[in-house]
Each structure stands twice: as structure tokens, then as C-alpha cells.
Input
Amino acid sequence: MQSPLSFGELVNSLQLKSGFNDPAYRERWNIFINEALREHARVSPWAGLEDVVTVTADGGRYLILPPFVDQLVSLLDTTNSVPVMRAGDWDRTNPVPFVAGTAGQAFEYDKIGEVPAIRSPSSYIWAASSHSSDNGLIYVTGLVANSGASTTNAINTTFKEASLTLTGTTPVTLTTLFTKILTISSVTDRNGDVIFQESGSHFSWLGRSQPSSRFKRIQLLYRPVVGTTFEVRFRFSVPKLIHDSQSPPVGVKTDFIVDHALSLHWQEQEQFQKAAAQAQKATKVLSDEARKDSAFDEPHNCLLPIVPFDPYSDPSF
Output
């Protein structure tokens, strides 16, 4: 069994195997390692990557999933004890009940994309970090209402960019009054999570390793009544590795991370034969692990030794 490697040890291994140990190249190794981690989750999800969470409907046609949800696996209406099946496109193929917002038991859902906040603001929003040392910039883009005289809503709306500077755990108010938030992002790493609030309630969230705020959003047909609960089976967003002391999630095969990161490195260097060979090694790590898991999944499977038949040991022979 391979020993788990920390992020710093992964970087050291890559530098040793490739010969690229220039400190200026460290950022590229960071990118390759995190891309390899994401690829591992896509190709071979490890045990513990999936979990369930309960979400309660607010009476609208959408469900906003928590920020740690990356992929939706299944959806169950626990109030009515029925599964909600994946369908979609009924807002175009059968728009009447969707447009009317007909209330009832939800029986289909459609993945509708990602949003940076759980709702559109109705007042000024403010942000604060969970760590006292954070003082970086947070950038917000969105739509604001202007003073145009036209009654056309599109003309009355302006696209605008704004920013605020964090002051640790002290709340900082965004002085621009947005009617709709389109992006919330940061270009610097933080030591804590950034919480956004409006009128005393949570509005958005930006994890310390995330460059932008994002929530998965799904739409339902029919529109569930307030208080309807749904059990969401999902896969976690893979946390980005930043600090040397961090380790990949439990279950990740670090041999795959090293081999796949090296493949990305050699591809960037246009050493395509080396890249292909390294990619094959990475694939073999996961395929070997899959065969081992299926063979030793006791008590369902068990490998038994083959004992040659010895006729002289059988008295009846």
C-alpha cells in the first residue's frame, strides 16, 4: 500500500522525476497537481467522494445547492418519498406548466447551471473573512439600475464592476447597489472563507481555495411547496491544494497524481512521447487498483490459492 504524500512531497517528487526544480516553476507544478486531482475524481471517484445532503424548497421553482456540491448524482423527494428524475427542456418543449409556475409534486429536474449567489440582492451586501489576516480584494460584477428615462428594462439596467477590500473578520459593505450579481471572485489566496450577507442573512460564500463563488442550481417541475425536503446525492467539489502541509483526500492514489501531473508537464514542454508514456502509467495505476478492489471485496469475492492435485495424497485413488 502506498504511503500518502503531502502537497509539498508531491511537488518534490515531481521535481526529482522531471529535473525541473526551478522555484519559478513551482506554480506550474501546483496547477498540474490540482488538474490531476480533478481528473482522478472524474475518472475514478474514490470512496468518500459521494455523500448526501438535505435541501429544503423555498416555494420557488429552483433549488440552490450548497457550495461544496460539484456533481449531482440523484435527487429524492423525501417529503413525498418519490425519486425526482432527470429530464429537462420542458421550459421549451412544454412551457405551459413551467411558465405558469404550477405548484405540485416535483417529478422532473433539469440542471440549469451555476450562480454566484443564492438570490438577487434587494439591498447593500457586505463581506467578512473568517480569518483576521485576510485583506485582499474581492471583485463583484453585476447589473445595477440607472436613472434612464426609458421604460425599457434593458435600457434601465447597466453592467458594472465593483470591488471591496477585506479587513479580516470586520464586515465591509459593498457601496454599489446591485440588482443582480453575476460574478464574485478573487485573484489572491486567502487564509479563511469569505461570507457575504444581506440584511443579516447569508447571501453568498467564497471558500479560501476558490477563485470564484459558485452554487449549482437546478429547476423543478412542478414547483414544490414551501418546506418540501429533498435528499441530494452528490459528489464533493475537490478542494484545491495550496499549502505544503495539505494532503489529498483519503482514497486518492498519489501515484496517479504524480504520473498524470508529469504527463501534463511533458505535454506542455512538447515532449509528446514522454507525455504519452506517463499518461499510460497513470491509467495503469487506477486500472490495477480497480482489479484489486474487485478481487478482494470480501466477503463477496475472495481469491483462493490453486492447489495442484496430488494423486498419491488421496487414499481413494
Residues 50-116+217-236 form one domain.
